[in-house]
Design brief:
With 153 residues, the chain is α+β, with helices and mostly antiparallel strands. It contains three helices and eleven strands. A hairpin with a 4-residue loop joins strand 5 and strand 6. The longest helix is centred in the middle third of the chain and has 16 residues.
Length: 153
């Protein structure tokens, strides 16, 4: 899981990656990069949830934006649990395993396991970065360094 927050043209994400398996139990790493800048399509994409299906969806979205003919959609079963938060010149968009982008028309927004804390913090005036930091104090699946990006960087 993770927390990705958006406010005032800024997108912020934590760097905690949590893996769970039957044999090893839970492993936590705090060096994961969840925000990727794509200057050629004018977008920053944050990936939350199941890493590998989310990255496949991110690749599809970017390839589709770069293509003039469109790109065949990956075949997800509909049970993959990930969310892409896409910040572009057109605004903020959210997309899940159904690969149907949906425009977000809110002043601030958050996704992930710490999203409720982040939204509450932003409601009280926090920046996107401060909101992710607040989520990391409460949500065990949010942590590590907070990465911050804007399209203006």
């Amino acid at each position: 899981m993770t927390t990705i927050a958006y406010r005032d043209g800024i997108i912020a994400a934590d760097s905690r990656e949590t893996w769970e398996c039957e044999i090893a139990g839970i492993a936590v790493f705090n060096r994961c990069t969840k925000l990727t800048r794509y200057d050629d399509i004018g977008a920053i994409i944050g990936t939350q949830g199941e890493s590998f299906p989310g990255l496949v969806a991110e690749d599809w979205y970017v390839d589709n934006e770069r293509s003039t003919n469109g790109v065949e959609k990956p075949d997800f079963s509909g049970e993959e649990d990930f969310t892409l938060l896409i910040l572009s010149r057109d605004g903020l968009t959210i997309m899940d395993c159904w690969l149907r982008p949906c425009k977000v028309n809110e002043k601030y927004f958050a996704v992930g396991s710490g999203s409720k804390v982040a939204l509450g913090a932003m409601y009280m005036g926090a920046t996107a970065e401060e909101a992710v930091k607040a989520a990391s104090k409460i949500d065990p699946f949010t942590g590590g360094k907070v990465h911050v990006m804007s399209l203006e960087d």
